[in-house]
Amino acid sequence: MAEINNINFLLPNKLEDSSSSKPAGTQSESGADFSALLKDALSSVNDAQLEANEAVQKVLSGETKDIHSTMIALQKADVSLKLMLEVKNKIVEAYQEVMRTQV
């Protein structure tokens, strides 16, 4: 029985040692990586929207008669925008969940 108490006594020290061994800049670096990831995704969605707009303008002005490529560009832009909106919704839900947790 005394051995179990000794193990429980050592366990919190082990947890403290493992938490203090993390580098100090880990949280800010991962935050910067996440920020860069979101910026890249937004840029990609914006590029798809601009390409679709350009394709539509070319069809309307008569520069091209390739409606097939225009529709593909429009669908890519639509799907990428819908995906980005769903990601945004999940991020907002996660933030709200964190805010609801009691400390």
TrEMBL record:
Location, primary (coarse class): other
Any single GO CC term annotated in Swiss-Prot or TrEMBL for this entry: bacterial-type flagellum basal body
Similarity section: Belongs to the FliE family.
Protein name in UniProt: Flagellar hook-basal body complex protein FliE
GO BP: any one term: bacterial-type flagellum-dependent cell motility
Compartment(s) where it occurs, according to its Swiss-Prot or TrEMBL record: Bacterial flagellum basal body
A Pfam cross-reference name: FliE
InterPro entries in the cross-refs: FliE
UniProt keyword annotation of Nucleus present: no
Superkingdom field: Bacteria
Organism name: Geovibrio thiophilus
Presence of keyword Membrane: no
Keyword terms of this UniProt record: Bacterial flagellum, Cell projection, Cilium, Flagellum
GO MF annotation terms: cytoskeletal motor activity; structural molecule activity
